Amino acid sequence: MKQYAVAMLCAFILSGFAGFSQTSQASIVEDFKPSSVNQPGQEYPQVNSQGYARFQILAPEAKSVVVSLGLGGAKGGTALTKSEDGYWRGTTANIMDEGFHYYHVTVDGGVFNDPGALNFYGSTRWESGIEIPAHDQDFYALKDVPHGNVQQILFSSKSTNTSRRAFVYTPPGYHKDKAKQYPVLYLQHGWGEDETAWSNQGRVNLIMDNLIAEGKIKPFIIVMTYGMTNEVKFGGLSSFKIEPFQTVLVDELIPYIDSNFRTVANHSNRAMAGLSMGGMETKSITLNKPEVFSHYALLSGGTYKPEDIKDKSKVKLIFLSCGSKERPDGVKSAVSGLKNAGFNAVSYVSDNTGHEFQTWRRSFKELAPLLFKQ
């Protein structure tokens, strides 16, 4: 476990450098538009059809302004150039991977968020966000289809002596048919994020709405809660213990959900999945509590081996995924081994992405239709 946790942290660190692809600045197409996750009415940051990002920051007294994308920045960040009007402007040296990216601005050594962009919780703080248009973005687009509901709940946690928060997605029609019951997916965020990540950065509710409208999935409930990961300081994941969160999830949150929502409250209709460190949590808890979950999914979050699982009859699905810029051979090899051992195992590799949300959006799109197929 300790070795795996360190490996996951290293993968997350490297994600700060995985968001760029090489091309020539001389070929930049001047069709820049405001990012779709800008503050209302703000023109910057901007993105173009190739995947370049352009920034504009007002700091007339500053001596240096650098935009850093990803954890720790990428290739030293994008240094902006000051103009006579007091604005600092600049364009990324290389095109970026499609999808969502965190970033921040360093002004004379101080770290700030871009006032032009919306903020998203990641890297244990609220970071600016930018959305690079993707060729396949239609599957998580906001469409004129019936929409589910994402609601905040507070549940009592005796083990931590607190009230804790979770967000619950209920599918379209949940509040109309009072007799229908639903399976449940417990979906975990990554290191440095919180329970808002999957709906804000991942757009999981829109992915669900669109898949349901297309008739591609059986509707189910999704529960997203804080994974007790941010208490671990950066670089200290080797000391991470799963037991406190396992108690919160299994002994406190699941009973609350089953008592307050119309769930099919049994092992066959309960799944757990997570991205990155949430995958590590998923693996640990599903192996520790095989009687609780029947569907397992690790998104850039490691793999299972056949010998990890004591009772094959309790596992209905194992889904493993990652980006093509991560370790796809490891995911494919693991699934091959699981299949040979008689498991229903599926692999997915997101093309031309790394340890980032476009990988996990695509992974969820592939996972959802496989869940709870009776």
Automatic annotation (TrEMBL):
<dbReference type="InterPro" id="IPR050583">
    <property type="entry name" value="Mycobacterial_A85_antigen"/>
</dbReference>
<keyword id="KW-0732">Signal</keyword>
<protein>
    <submittedName>
        <fullName>Alpha/beta hydrolase-fold protein</fullName>
    </submittedName>
</protein>
<dbReference type="InterPro" id="IPR013783">
    <property type="entry name" value="Ig-like_fold"/>
</dbReference>
<feature type="signal peptide">
    <location>
        <begin position="1"/>
        <end position="26"/>
    </location>
</feature>
<dbReference type="InterPro" id="IPR000801">
    <property type="entry name" value="Esterase-like"/>
</dbReference>
<dbReference type="GO" id="GO:0016787">
    <property type="term" value="F:hydrolase activity"/>
</dbReference>
<dbReference type="Pfam" id="PF00756">
    <property type="entry name" value="Esterase"/>
</dbReference>
<dbReference type="InterPro" id="IPR014756">
    <property type="entry name" value="Ig_E-set"/>
</dbReference>
<dbReference type="InterPro" id="IPR029058">
    <property type="entry name" value="AB_hydrolase_fold"/>
</dbReference>
<keyword id="KW-0378">Hydrolase</keyword>
